[in-house]
Write a sequence for this structure.
């Protein structure tokens, strides 16, 4: 007796969920793949949008992929690399070399918290993964308001169906399997042979499936709309900064994007913080801060898990859940990895391999 091909229900259209759809399509081309996304568009925090204040398409956050991130790089068709960034010490008003003066700044960018607060397992695993590719680490790709076109749109072509605006509310189970998924728009029946890959963020997974409750760290991104491409000390398109409010500057045509990891109370007042950041940028560039250009400040309050011992210990050891037909994906599910695009793709590989 011939059985119909199973349906794979993927919850969440971020990088992990869409990567899982791609891997399933490559391994099981006959299968039906449906992705459900709560937002109106796929991508999660890793996407572009049209900003009415800036009058242009911008990224929700500047994302960086190192040359050593082979899994993340596999998603990009033709990545254009920039060399490793120069660093600038704002307190001393001079350029400095990376090693050993800026290990703490690099660690803050990798882990979204100080190195001393990061779980040893994450630090050691990151060092191990980067070390063999040290020359590759000096190659850096960063998004230039093209996250959706470069990353999300190509991945979105792999599911048979991508249903946006589908907010998962609850589920039904029987005999150790999930049998129904209750969304705001419909109830989806899960057939006995079907599989579910849950690629929800950690907070929503905890809310719906009673998973672990984590602490999070914030990232602040400020996008300035500029009339020209700006230059920095070192003549590179991006710059790492020490002893200043802005930690990383990324230039793109018509834009200057600022990233601040583990953002503090200094960003409570958006306008004042943006003005102080712009003033410091002008001082670094040796220019007068005559006026502040249009800007957008985006606060990602749950950008990453806190990468300390407590939160790392709560992360799952495998993609297997207590339900026989559901597996986990998402960067937060990868114990001993920093939350990143690389971890998201690895989690998708792990979940689909389990199937």
């Amino acid at each position: 007796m011939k059985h119909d091909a199973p349906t794979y229900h993927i919850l969440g259209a971020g990088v992990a969920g869409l990567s899982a759809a791609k891997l399933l399509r490559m391994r099981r081309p006959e299968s039906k793949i449906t992705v459900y996304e709560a937002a109106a568009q796929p991508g999660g925090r890793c996407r572009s949008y049209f900003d009415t204040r800036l009058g242009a398409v911008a990224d929700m956050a500047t994302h960086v992929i190192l040359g050593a991130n082979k899994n993340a790089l596999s998603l990009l068709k033709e990545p254009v690399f920039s060399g490793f960034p120069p660093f600038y010490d704002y307190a001393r008003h001079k350029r400095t070399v990376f090693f050993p003066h800026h290990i703490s700044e690099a660690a803050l960018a990798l882990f979204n918290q100080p190195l001393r607060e990061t779980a040893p397992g994450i630090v050691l695993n990151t060092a191990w993964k980067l070390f063999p590719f040290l020359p590759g680490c000096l190659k850096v790709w960063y998004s230039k308001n093209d996250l959706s076109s470069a990353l999300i749109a190509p991945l979105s072509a792999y599911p048979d169906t991508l249903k946006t605006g589908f907010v998962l509310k609850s589920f039904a189970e029987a005999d150790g399997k999930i049998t129904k998924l209750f969304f705001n728009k419909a109830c989806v029946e899960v057939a006995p042979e079907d599989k579910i890959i849950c690629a929800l963020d950690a907070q929503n997974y905890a809310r719906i499936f009673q998973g672990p409750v984590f602490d999070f760290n914030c990232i602040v991104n400020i996008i300035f709309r500029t009339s020209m491409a700006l230059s920095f000390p070192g003549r590179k398109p991006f710059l790492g900064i020490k002893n200043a409010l802005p930690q990383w500057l990324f230039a793109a045509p018509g834009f200057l994007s600022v990233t601040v990891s583990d953002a503090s109370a200094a960003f409570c007042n958006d306008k004042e913080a943006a003005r102080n950041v712009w003033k410091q940028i002008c001082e670094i560039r040796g220019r007068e801060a005559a006026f502040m250009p249009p800007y957008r400040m985006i606060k990602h309050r749950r950008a990453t898990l806190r990468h300390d011992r407590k939160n790392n210990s709560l992360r799952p050891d495998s993609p297997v859940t207590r339900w026989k037909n559901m597996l986990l994906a998402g960067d937060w599910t990868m114990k001993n990895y920093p939350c990143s695009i690389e971890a998201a793709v690895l989690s998708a590989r792990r979940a689909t391999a389990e199937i």
